[in-house]
């Protein structure tokens, strides 16, 4: 799957201006039956950070997409994305849901904390997230640089 | 008609208005001009897409992708 040129341009031009775009890698895997899936648009643009989902054991969530061999189709980092307590329309209020769409706002929030802590933006912020992440004993094609960590 | 995103090349981002005028003249019905990103969205008849690609300053013309979220009660989001 080729990166979509306008998404790549938007990612690159946002980075130039100091904004980092973070996107969900996608939920098209089914690792329980050996299907690794693939990173979808817009996360498959090299200029956009792609987030995979981890479960409570820090294993990949079964649905979390794996990197493609093609440039850009890689998972960059991972965050908690399995049975995460979330807000829900009234009157339910709260429910646990799963997905790389749950892991992604964790990483975006942590990026904001690092931006506050260090003043870094754009590509420098991207590098900081990777530098500070906890490495996991699993292939980088699954978890990228590992578990995204907040400043301590 | 195809919904398209037109990506303007780096060399023409400072003269976006001129590129937008040329795109209109070549058949693009402009919806949004995203100045900071250098991207123009709109729709155009399928037989004008090659003409749009030929406009000076245009880096690419791509059919817009569609995204469909899972239903709200799906277990994986």
Automatic annotation (TrEMBL), chain B:
Superkingdom of source: Bacteria
Protein name per UniProt: Ketohydroxyglutarate aldolase
Organism from which the protein derives: Blastococcus brunescens
